């Protein structure tokens, strides 16, 4: 009998036991021969046979009327923002009543295929909604699209910047940003592990929020690393962004993260009109020239800083020494975390959240058949992991984690003295697509692009990007506003002030 891809009644052969021992590097032990070890293993596996006989609890869908939809027709989506149109309506009334929302296609909407940007032969069709999807539907929103995951996808076309299609829209919540900017949806949600909400939001001239780690449940996301994963709203205005976060925020019993976070929500939209007079705002010096910001980016940032001063904020430089090395720390953390996620078939270890067993089995089958690879730097990360494990015993993960904690302390000390921190969201304008595709991977490009966004993923602090006028090639720039943990309301205060002051126009 096969259950969840496992032959529940089978017993391991002597050859299998020998192979497992060799793979794990078990030393030979004359006192414990293979036959005795196999007999003990067979007895122990009875625990798992019993597990497969127990009924699996499954949350019930609250909204069963679902149209899984179709791919866009020619001309409907000129910038390749949408992977699939769909229609899933929620409550008849609510604070988001009738709002058309796009969902990044690595976040589960039950009954709608979830591609993660790749046409796998074995399709993932979730049977459960992600927590954020459930909450949006409860608030009256309508899920109308699954949005592109990557900026240049061989399976679904190249996603292009709506302000100039020769340029990239940012990665990897590119489709969500483009769909909002072009009005294909009223709002969207994206995922942010190193800047993937904020970077495309900045490049496309919209608002994007990476909340405090654990504030928004990540259950239903195609995880990268539970310590880096965030889900956040992407919108045209700060008010809509704050309204979505109010709905999405708060702990959930299924989540691998929110159990560790305080059980709080906020009335973020109430920050509208409060102003920023008297707020202490620190400019992170290491986020400017040391991060590799272009002259046009620095000019836009200076104009944004002056707007904040003009509205009564006290804006002054601060130093966070490890900021300039955050991208390197982040890559080291991700190298170990993402490989561990792959080894657990996309679920991760050491958390108390629910496991979507159907998705686990499908992902495991994709790995086993060679369909699936790691989603980013797929040819490099696992090779780096194996080399570091073999030659350095994996100690680099410990070094990176300790540096991460020091960065967190440095940011925390600054926020003890300042109410907010500001940086350019991206260090330069978006790259041209033809240049990016012809040159391939360059480590310096990745670290520079993520220089100012990865710190907030490493530390967990909230970070909002709002448009701050034109930069390189006349394309949008973003101002990143960081705050204390679970103080999204103050972050939104500054965002509202930028919006009211015309900061979006430059």
UniProtKB/TrEMBL annotation:
<feature type="domain" description="Amidase">
    <location>
        <begin position="90"/>
        <end position="491"/>
    </location>
</feature>
<dbReference type="InterPro" id="IPR000120">
    <property type="entry name" value="Amidase"/>
</dbReference>
<dbReference type="InterPro" id="IPR023631">
    <property type="entry name" value="Amidase_dom"/>
</dbReference>
<protein>
    <submittedName>
        <fullName>Amidase</fullName>
    </submittedName>
</protein>
<dbReference type="InterPro" id="IPR036928">
    <property type="entry name" value="AS_sf"/>
</dbReference>
<dbReference type="Pfam" id="PF01425">
    <property type="entry name" value="Amidase"/>
</dbReference>
<dbReference type="GO" id="GO:0003824">
    <property type="term" value="F:catalytic activity"/>
</dbReference>
<dbReference type="InterPro" id="IPR020556">
    <property type="entry name" value="Amidase_CS"/>
</dbReference>
């Amino acid at each position: 009998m096969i259950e969840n891809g496992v032959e529940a009644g089978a017993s391991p052969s002597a050859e299998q036991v020998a192979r497992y021992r060799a793979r794990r590097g078990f030393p030979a032990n004359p006192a414990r021969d293979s036959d005795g070890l196999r007999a003990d293993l067979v007895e122990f596996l009875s625990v798992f046979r019993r597990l497969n006989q127990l009924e699996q609890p499954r949350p019930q869908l609250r909204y069963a009327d679902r149209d899984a939809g179709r791919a866009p027709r020619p001309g409907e989506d000129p910038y390749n923002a949408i992977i699939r149109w769909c229609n899933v309506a929620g409550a008849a009334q609510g604070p988001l009543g009738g709002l058309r929302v796009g969902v990044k296609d690595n976040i589960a909407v039950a009954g709608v295929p979830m591609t993660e940007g790749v046409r796998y032969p074995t399709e993932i069709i979730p049977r459960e909604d992600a927590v954020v999807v459930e909450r949006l539907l409860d608030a009256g929103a309508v899920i109308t699209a699954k949005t592109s995951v990557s900026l240049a996808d061989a399976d679904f076309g190249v996603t292009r910047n709506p302000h100039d299609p020769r340029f990239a829209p940012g990665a990897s919540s590119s489709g969500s940003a483009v769909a909002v900017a072009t009005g294909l949806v009223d709002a969207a949600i994206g995922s942010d592990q190193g800047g993937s909400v904020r970077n495309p939001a900045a490049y496309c001239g919209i608002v994007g929020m990476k909340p405090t780690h654990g504030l928004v449940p990540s259950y239903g996301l195609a995880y990268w690393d539970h310590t880096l994963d965030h889900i956040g709203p992407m919108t045209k205005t700060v008010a809509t962004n704050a309204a979505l976060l109010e709905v999405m925020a708060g702990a959930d019993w299924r989540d691998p993260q929110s159990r560790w976070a305080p059980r709080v929500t906020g009335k973020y939209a109430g920050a509208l009109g409060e102003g920023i007079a008297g707020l202490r705002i620190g400019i992170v010096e290491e986020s400017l020239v040391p991060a590799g910001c272009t002259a046009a980016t620095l000019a836009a940032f200076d104009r944004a800083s002056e707007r904040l001063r003009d509205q009564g904020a006290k804006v002054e430089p601060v130093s966070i020494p490890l900021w300039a090395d955050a991208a390197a720390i982040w890559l080291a953390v991700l190298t170990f975390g993402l490989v561990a996620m792959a080894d657990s078939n996309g679920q991760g270890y050491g958390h108390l959240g629910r496991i979507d067993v159907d998705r686990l089995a499908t992902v495991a089958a994709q790995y086993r058949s060679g369909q699936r690879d790691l989603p980013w730097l797929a040819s490099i990360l696992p090779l780096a992991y194996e080399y570091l494990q073999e030659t350095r015993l994996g100690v680099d993960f410990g070094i990176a984690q300790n540096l991460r904690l020091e960065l967190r302390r440095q940011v925390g000390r600054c926020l003890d003295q300042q109410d907010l921190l500001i940086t350019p969201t991206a260090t330069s304008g978006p790259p041209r697509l033809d240049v990016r595709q012809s040159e391939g991977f360059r480590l310096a490009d990745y670290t520079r692009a993520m220089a100012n966004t990865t710190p907030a993923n490493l530390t967990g602090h909230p970070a909002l990007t709002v448009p701050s006028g034109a930069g390189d090639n006349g394309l949008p720039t973003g101002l990143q506003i960081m705050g204390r943990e679970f103080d999204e309301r103050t972050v939104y205060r500054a965002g509202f002030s930028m919006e009211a002051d015309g900061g979006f126009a430059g």
